[in-house]
Design brief:
The complex is a heterodimer of chains A (about 325) and B (about 220). Chain A contains twelve helices and two strands. Chain A has about 325 residues and is an all-alpha fold. Chain B is about 35% helix and about 25% strand. In chain B, the strands form two sheets. Chain B has a five-stranded parallel beta sheet with strand order 5-6-7-3-8, with helices on both faces. In chain B, strands 4-1-2-9 form a four-stranded antiparallel beta sheet, covered by helices on one side. The chains are: A mainly alpha (about 325), B alpha/beta (about 220).
């Protein structure tokens, strides 16, 4: 037996109270938040309702491939969220964050669903669990990214003094990375520490409303909590390593100029970003395939061999094509060469 | 060992396809105990030249070596421990020069040459910087004091080569004289960027003049 259904007029009553109090307070104190709260409330309503409808067929079909596809979609949105917040960005940052968020989400979700809860790719478990993981991963990645890129920009001169005295790039940036990681991981730790003291956490609330025994619901909440902390530490560390590789080179030089200030984007651009990310992913995959094809054919075909002899890299042309972001293109792993 | 630089050139790309030459065809050699003064108009690439020799910026052409040893043969951290660059800008550490010394001497490349290290406080005193100031916060030091504190650290690390970017720009004449004297006695090969016309003569230095290249734009 599920919880009691909420009729539309009942939902409207809740919304009306929110708007009344918020707009009232905003008018009274001249906060100027009237428009923002209306937009936020309408957005939340539309997004969650759409989610409700999208999830109906996903749950009904309960097909592992569709579940995987949906998880990939959520991971992309989470990566976009994380990339959108920090004040600085570098070419290839979206790709780095997409890679880290997707890998971590898949690994931790697989552990949770196949080792801990052992239900497999059942849509009823997988989608809410991965959704919660990704939401939290996205914010720790955003905080870590913001802290590291900001600190590199701010303490650029101190970092260069260390390098000039003979520090390796790791020695020069260690303190920066440590601070950023502590900053990024602290909210997760705090959340774990106060869990259950102040309020019943969201997922447990949901399960109790759905008729689950509180003891069972508590265990589910704990599993989620442990998995959230796991993905936070994995993704923050991964992103930190990738930022370091993007801002330094194998000769232990700092390239702080690769971090460029972001002009504040409007929230509605998320959709645009999403389209761009899918486009970037598709182009990246196509370029990768092409590169592989060149590598396979260059060794055998006379034309390719001639190109290589002249020192012309056949990859160069595709690189400029696959560059979707507006700043200098960074290729995977090219920093270490 | 002498620092030898051959045909150094540095270009920066201003926009795709175009680049600006910062300096080109620069060659010099400095033996231990000698001073080479780099002079020329602002924007002539003097600081960039020092950064390139230290390996903090990339050279577009040419090479540097310490005797027979190149930066790549030594590894860049070991090269920079031996060829120490002191930037013109103030060292912005949230600590004291003494803390910075402690931190720098813990670097792997510096620990390898620990036996060379001297006493930074003694050097600081020789350039007129009070021992107490060496233990106070960087932020509380005046421009000239911070400059001499940074220099004391670099000199006490006893590198083979010191690359100094206007090391006395914030010092009064008396302090400048002390700094010049300390650097002449430190035994390192010194490459010294200066805007003080009389300084090269006081130091008995060889001169290297970097001309202002007329924003030359070449198509790549």
């Amino acid at each position: 037996m599920g919880p009691k259904a909420i009729a539309l007029p009942e939902l409207a009553a809740g919304g009306a109270l929110l708007l009344l109090t918020f707009v009232g307070a905003s008018q009274l104190l001249s906060l100027g938040l009237e428009r923002a709260v209306c937009v936020a409330a309408v957005r939340a309503t539309l997004q969650l309702s759409a989610l409700g409808y999208i999830l109906v067929p996903v749950f009904r079909l309960n097909n592992p491939w569709i579940v995987l596809l949906y998880i990939t979609f959520m991971a992309t949105v989470a990566a976009l969220e994380a990339v959108g917040r920090p004040p600085y960005r570098y070419a290839g940052m979206l790709r780095h964050v997409l890679l880290v968020v997707t890998c971590v989400a898949f690994f931790v979700a697989a552990f949770a669903l196949f080792v801990v809860v052992r239900v497999g790719l059942d849509a009823h478990y997988a989608i809410p669990v991965v959704g919660m993981l990704l939401g939290n991963t996205s914010s720790s990645v955003a905080v870590t990214l913001g802290a590291i890129t900001g600190a590199i920009k701010d303490s650029r001169e101190a970092i260069e003094v260390r390098l000039a005295m003979g520090a390796t790039r790791w020695e020069a940036l260690k303190a920066t990375v440590q601070n950023a990681l502590v900053l990024g991981l602290t909210p997760t730790l705090n959340q774990m520490r106060i869990m259950g003291l102040v309020s019943i956490p969201g997922m447990m609330t949901g399960q109790i409303l759905g008729g689950t025994q509180p003891a069972t619901a508590a265990r589910y909440q704990l599993v989620i909590l442990f998995m959230i902390a796991t993905s936070a530490v994995m993704s923050s560390t991964g992103v930190a390593a990738l930022v370091l590789s993007a801002c330094t080179d194998a000769e232990h030089r700092l390239h702080a100029q690769r971090l460029v200030k972001v002009q504040k984007r409007k929230e509605s651009d998320l959709l645009l970003n999403l389209v761009q990310a899918v486009y970037a992913g598709a182009k990246g995959a196509a370029a990768g395939a092409k590169r592989w094809w060149h590598r396979m054919t260059a060794a055998s075909s006379p034309a390719g061999a001639a190109l290589l002899d002249q020192g012309v890299n056949p990859e160069d042309e595709e690189e400029s094509l696959s560059d979707v972001e507006d700043v200098e293109h960074v290729e995977w792993g090219s920093r270490e060469r | 060992m002498a620092l030898v630089a051959r045909n150094l050139r540095r270009e920066i790309s201003t926009q795709p396809g175009d680049s600006r030459v910062v300096f080109t065809n620069v060659s010099f050699s400095v033996a231990p105990g000698q001073v080479l003064c780099v002079v020329g108009p602002s924007g002539g690439g003097k600081s960039t030249l020092l950064r390139c020799v230290a390996g903090l910026d990339e050279l577009s052409a040419g090479n540097v070596a310490l005797g027979e040893l190149t930066p790549h043969a030594l590894g860049l951290p070991a090269w920079r421990a031996s060829v120490c660059y002191v930037a013109q800008s103030r060292w912005a550490f949230p600590s004291s020069p003494a803390d910075t010394w402690a931190e720098v001497t813990q670097l792997r490349a510096q620990k390898a040459r620990e036996h060379c290290h001297g006493d930074p406080v003694a050097v600081a005193c020789s350039v007129g910087l009070d021992a107490a100031l060496f233990s106070s916060q960087w932020a509380t030091l005046s421009g000239g004091q911070a400059q001499r504190a940074a220099l004391s650290i670099a000199v006490a690390l006893r590198p083979e080569v010191l690359l100094l970017d206007e090391p006395t720009s914030a010092c009064d004449p008396a302090s400048t004289a002390l700094v010049e004297d300390a650097l002449l006695r430190c035994g390192a090969a010194v490459v010294w960027v200066t805007h003080d016309a009389a300084q090269p003569q006081r130091l008995g230095a060889t001169l290297l003049t970097l001309p202002a290249l007329s924003r030359e734009v070449t198509s790549v």
